[in-house]
Specification:
The chain is mostly beta strands. It has one domain: outer membrane lipoprotein receptor (LolB), chain A. Helices cover about 0% and strands about 40% of the residues.
Length: about 200
């Protein structure tokens, strides 16, 4: 019986929880394809993702301004915008302080320089019994894979790539002109990038 072997390189060293760069952007997020712009200094987040579910095609563009407590849902095809209250606090993209280090692994190969990526995998559990597993790069603390398990909804996995450090496009954090006249609506749900980072989600 043939099997596919995965190379895991565990390094015995003391690794402490850390925080990701304060500004960065990526070209892939969640199980759909998309992009996210993240600004921890200004507490702003822009998420664009697209996907197909059966016969339904979904295109979502959300701008979350936590300091202003406002979120915009932007519909480019209809040139319309919903303005909603953002009734939650900003959660930095970082390893929680109470997370436990599962181990260090090299994605790819350690046979030669530049052939592998050293990562740290962290695990933890929330008071409501939701569990998480986070993989960040050892150098730079960039998120690679974020996995959350909830007994209510099952597994949620977010994989990211192509991070660019810094603010690649400052206009990402401003709504388009057709959003200026949008009236505040009522919101039923709080919004965060990923429940993995929320220690208080229920």
């Amino acid at each position: 019986m043939n099997s596919v072997g995965l190379l895991f390189c565990f390094i015995l060293t003391r690794v402490l929880p850390f925080e990701s760069p304060h500004q960065m952007a990526t070209g892939g997020l969640m199980t759909t394809s998309g992009a996210v712009a993240y600004d921890a200094l200004g507490q702003r987040l822009r998420a664009r993702h697209y996907g197909s579910f059966g016969n339904l095609t979904v295109a979502v563009d959300e701008l979350m301004l936590y300091q202003q407590e406002v979120m915009y849902e932007i519909n480019w095809s209809a040139q319309t915008c919903r303005k909603l209250p953002l009734d939650t606090y900003f959660i930095p993209m970082q390893v929680p302080e109470d997370a436990s280090l599962l181990g260090q692994t090299i994605l790819g190969s350690s046979s030669s320089w530049g052939m592998g990526l050293l990562t740290n995998t962290w695990v933890g559990q929330f008071p409501n019994n939701d569990s998480y597993l986070l993989t960040f790069t050892e150098i730079g603390c960039l998120p690679v894979t974020l996995t959350n398990y909830s007994p209510k909804i099952g597994w949620t996995t977010i994989s990211t790539y192509n991070w660019v450090i810094g603010m690649s496009n400052p206009e990402d954090f401003f709504p388009p002109a057709f959003c200026y006249d949008a009236k505040m609506e009522k919101s039923l749900f709080a919004k965060n990038l990923c429940p993995v980072f929320d220690h208080n989600h229920n």
